[in-house]
Amino acid sequence: MPNTNAAIRALRKSERRKVSNLRQKREFLDVIKDYKKTIEGENTASATGKLSNVFKKLDKAVKANLIKKGKADRLKSRLSKRLTGANAPKVTPEG
Fold first, then answer.
1. Cα–Cα distance, 45 to 64 (Å, whole number)
2. Does domain 5-77 match CATH 2.60.40.10?
3. Rounded to whole angstroms, how far apart are CA atoms 22 and 59?
4. How many Cβ atoms are within 10 Å of 34's Cβ, its own excluded?
5. Domain spans, the chain
């Protein structure tokens, strides 16, 4: 338990920030999950719109120091590849 008034205030502030950070992290994880479901459902038209929303959430998470910039860039790259992979024509092996 904090002993000084400043430490008590700092603890309250830390708890408020924790709640906010967890909420923001949950939001961008949910957006990513929704995007992945859309890609698997072969609905690339709505996936393109959702991809920009994913980018927006990731950029805001970087700005709030929830994740590092490199991680956000890596996620953006991988999620973009999923979209282009979903748009590629299906090739069946000839046998």
1. 30
2. no
3. 16
4. 14
5. 5-77
Q: pLDDT tens per residue, the chain (95 residues)?
A: 889 999 999 999 999 999 999 999 999 999 999 999 988 887 777 888 899 999 999 999 999 999 999 999 999 999 999 888 766 655 566 65
Contact (Cβ atoms closer than 8 angstroms) between residue 89 and residue 44: no
Structure token digits, residue 85: 């992979």
Rounded to whole angstroms, how far apart are CA atoms 50 and 41? 13
Under 8 Å between Cβ of 38 and 86: no
Query: How many H helices and E strands in the chain?
Result: 3, 0
